[in-house]
UniProtKB/TrEMBL annotation:
This is Ferritin-like domain-containing protein. InterPro entries: Ferritin-like_SF, Pigment-catalase-like, TAT_signal. It holds the Pfam family Ferritin_2. It comes from the Bacteria. It comes from Sphingomonas aerophila. PROSITE patterns: TAT. Coiled coil: none annotated. SUPFAM superfamilies: Ferritin-like (SSF47240).
Length: 332
């Protein structure tokens, strides 16, 4: 989802998801250290080393999530309501960033328009909830790029995925289909980010809250994937576009090649007479062989939203000046 030079950071497909979870801690402080709170369980560094590192707190993890919620909430708010979040939801620790704004999407399908309105309300509520939960520790909104120029984050992502030619603008607000594809860029990432972070929280109350938001984000992702699948029945290129976006994300997060679009999959089933049959099925839920959705570390998520696979990247893409809080750097 950026130029070819910055998309070469994908790791070997055999890297385990457990290592991805450990990477959350390594990347949390710029990739330099493992959180002391998680050392005994994860066994990554010695006890002596653990004493010399700054622990990543539950507040750090929730603030990382708040960055993503700011991004999603602003996107859906502009697409559904033609306006961004109110100023009262933007303040916090650090300077308030600016938004390169979007606009109301040109919806012609009332179902997609209703999806956008519901998700916009949910994401704004997530921002409010996390800010209230974090209290005075809540970060301010960082600068966010939701524009439509040929050099905008959306356009660069679409160019890298092959949705539009190089140097061409992609307008996520132009049509129902372009809105859905833009939403697809975010939604799967949010689900995998919360799944990766939830087990790392120490407070049961925070775990419960994160699990609840994870469930909401999963419903959102399912809505978007279902809408793209249905529209893809009449316009097959929509399905292949989701495959291209998924492939581009895989080049940016350094994880196993587990990303999936919504194109039909095939499965071999054994019949009662021991013969086999190959059948097609929809792929509305991206999972592994156990039907479990995979996780991403903070560093992997940042590689995607920064649109840069280079480890240690601290700004770019949808966050031109980087995210706010302690957890800032991508990890290839």
């Amino acid at each position: 989802m950026t130029d070819s030079a910055s998309m070469m950071g994908a790791l070997d497909a055999r890297v385990s998801r457990r290592e991805g979870r450990r990477e959350f801690f390594r990347s949390a402080l710029g990739g330099a250290a493992v959180a002391a709170a998680g050392v005994a369980t994860l066994g990554v560094v010695s006890a002596a080393q653990a004493q010399s590192v700054t622990p990543v707190t539950d507040a750090d993890i929730l603030n990382f999530a708040l960055n993503l919620e700011y991004l999603e909430a602003q996107f859906y708010s502009y697409a559904a309501n033609d306006t961004g979040l109110p100023a009262a939801l933007l303040t916090g620790t650090g300077a308030v960033g600016t938004v390169t704004p979007g606009r109301r999407a040109g919806f012609t399908d009332p179902v997609v328009a209703q999806y956008a309105r519901e998700i916009a309300a949910d994401e704004a509520a997530h921002v409010q909830f996390l800010r209230t939960t974090l209290g005075s520790s809540a970060i301010a909104m960082p600068s966010i790029d939701l524009g439509v120029s040929k050099d905008s984050a959306f356009s660069r992502a679409a160019q890298a995925a092959g949705l539009v030619p190089a140097g061409t603008a992609f307008d996520p607000y132009a049509t129902d289909e372009s809105f859905l594809l833009a939403a697809f860029i975010f939604e799967d990432v949010g689900v995998t980010a919360y799944k990766g972070a939830s087990p790392l929280l120490s407070s049961n109350a925070y775990v419960d809250a994160a699990a609840g938001i994870l469930a909401a984000e999963a419903f959102h992702a399912g809505l978007i994937r279902n809408a793209l699948y249905q529209k893809g029945l009449a316009t097959p290129s929509l399905r292949t576009s989701t495959d291209a976006i998924a492939k581009a994300r895989d080049t940016l997060d350094g994880a196993q090649l587990l990303e999936q679009g919504v194109s039909n999959q095939t499965r071999t089933i054994t019949n009662a007479d021991a013969t086999t049959t190959s059948v097609e099925y929809a792929n509305l839920v991206p999972t592994d062989g156990n039907a479990i959705t995979f996780s991403r570390s903070a560093g992997q998520v940042l590689g995607i939203v920064y649109l840069n696979a280079t480890a240690g990247t601290t700004a770019g893409g949808f966050f031109p000046a980087g995210v706010n809080g302690t957890i800032k750097a991508s990890a290839a």
